[in-house]
């Protein structure tokens, strides 16, 4: 067995979801919405299964979807993409990430990562032979600083794996922070792989700024998107990869020998969905922002110090000011077993030097689900 994977612990998501089932808890841990997703998009997929082509589609993705991706990003982010040479469809963003890392890392290359981080990042980097250089972000603002980047970048830096908007913090990085990161990438001659799956799940008037729009990064960046996140259907696993032709040539070869292709019916439906009216995307954001605000208000009234969240499905609270003498992991264990609410300890997203006071809640739920969770939590100040 491969020792890297054989020695990995059970993920915190699996652990907390199991405890949620055992204790019939409200699960605000794993990040998926309560509803099944937009009906018209699902109907397009069903029609394509019954009446369409169900054999191998093109390895790079259906032309229909590749052009829809290019058109969508031109409209929303001002990107000028060649659909034939710079867009590829994958079986989810995680496959896109795995393929990019396998394609672009040689054994011994250093890879800059930002923690807290999505749990797949580090094992994938290590399996590709990369050596992780970790930048530690900390609450309440989770800011990128020149000092932290200077400590992580070295002459051996070959790739940077970045997530914006950022999970689990809900942070949307500023233009200044992004340009600072771009300067380090240029200086080190490093490729930036930018996980932008939350690009549409963004609030408070923020406008997503893609890595491909940053100074000097158009030819050295890989942008990764996700239909599952855009349409709130996390099980669909349809990802988008956008990169300059020189990078795409090797990225496509890695994809060819991972999943090769992605179900054609889902590709047809996603192509349709990306062309939905602008108001649909804005209304979806507004509804999620309303849910965020509902949970934030309830948590604040219950005595939880709520941290800012400008994107994703997640809201964090910092237990440190409460002086509970308990870390985030133990607190989450107590919540699920004693109060019937499951959340995720953010320390699980760190590889080292973890912040151990922050707890993440998912707000992409119905009002009834959020209200039940808040009722069960009670007032944290009263035990």
From TrEMBL:
InterPro entries: Aminotransferase_I/II_large (IPR004839), Kynurenine-oxoglutarate_AT (IPR051326), PyrdxlP-dep_Trfase (IPR015424), PyrdxlP-dep_Trfase_major (IPR015421), PyrdxlP-dep_Trfase_small (IPR015422). Transmembrane segments: none annotated. PANTHER family: FI04487P (PTHR43807:SF20). Residues 26-377 form the Aminotransferase class I/classII large domain. It comes from Ancylobacter radicis. Pfam families: Aminotran_1_2. This is Aminotransferase. SUPFAM superfamilies: PLP-dependent transferases (SSF53383). Keywords: Aminotransferase, Pyridoxal phosphate, Transferase. Signal peptide: none annotated. GO terms for molecular function: transaminase activity. CDD domains: AAT_like. Its cofactor is pyridoxal 5'-phosphate.
